[in-house]
Description:
It is a single chain. With about 350 residues, this protein is of the alpha/beta class. It has three domains: about 15-65, 434 Repressor (Amino-terminal Domain) (Orthogonal Bundle); about 70-170 and about 300-330, Rossmann fold (3-Layer(aba) Sandwich); about 170-300, Response regulator (Rossmann fold, 3-Layer(aba) Sandwich). It is built from twelve helices and eleven strands. The strands form two sheets. A six-stranded parallel sheet has the order 2-1-3-4-5-10, sandwiched between helices. α1 packs across α2 (about 25-35) and α5 packs across α12. The chain starts with 14 loop residues before the first helix and ends in a 9-residue tail after the last strand. About 45% of the residues are buried.
Amino acid sequence: MTRPTGSRGARTATLSDVAKLAGVSVSTASKALNGRNHVHSQTRERVFEAAAQLQFSPNSLARGLLAGRSGTVGLLTTDLSGRFSLPILMGAEDAFGAGQVSVFLCDARGDAIRERHHVQALVSRRVDGLIVVGSSTDPRPKLADRVDVPVVYAYAPSEDPEDQSIVPDNVGAGRMAIEHLVACGRTRIAHISGDRHYSAARDRDVGATEALTEAGLEPVGEVAYGSWTESWGRAAAAMLIDRHPEVDAVVCGNDQVARGVLDTLREHGRTVPEDVAVLGFDNWEVLTTGSRPQLTSVDPNLEELGRAAARALFDAIDDEHDRGVRTLPCRLVIRESTVRDR
Length: 342
């Protein structure tokens, strides 16, 4: 076939051109170029060769994906100022591609009536799909209005198992925290968490308990549930040291709690990490890198979660709609608070 690019006046190659040259459907070409699953390696290689021959660009891919659609999506959050929502939104927008998909961002501010209004406005603009970002990992009600476009829930899963939700793996995060501390030689590990009513707190405890059992260890005391604050971390650490002076590691519900624990350990003459290792969650860098010593923390990979939600929405728009809750792995960021002589 005549190469449609590379000479003056020639038209730009389309996704259909790539599919025709590779001998596959447009849908298969789209999946191959996006790195999606369920494409045979030989087929994927053939599609890439066709794209290279036709000088098919990522910009062309975005146009091809959106052929016959409005080219717009809605991002609905309940907490735009929250430190969890923003990284997810940034990751989603990054995956949509700068300038390739128009994104309408709406903040419901935790108000059901405002959320309903935003959903109606987005649907009236004929968006191709919606991503709903929660402010916590607790399940949330599905969108109140009947929405005839694909919806992906990010961070906070939908209560409806028929919906598609993408959340951090908090059970795996709790397991990861304990496995790291055990690898550092810690055997007397305590857990100071936040509000027990939060699913993230309960899920992390499940993972931590499993990892302790597998290591043949007993936890130091019961999980201390409280608030997600430095003041709670200070108070809980004081009680812990009084009741269990033998403790040599503390898993904390978030980085704020961990900062409070560091303060109390210092006041009681315990050095970190030589005497006691301290580990937090969320990897909020203003806290982790500002701590002394700098704080090891489990990062929920929120930008990647946002990118995964965007990719899932594209799949749903392509009529490949998964159902249920999918968890994404967190990652451990190791700093001075858990590793001796680092």
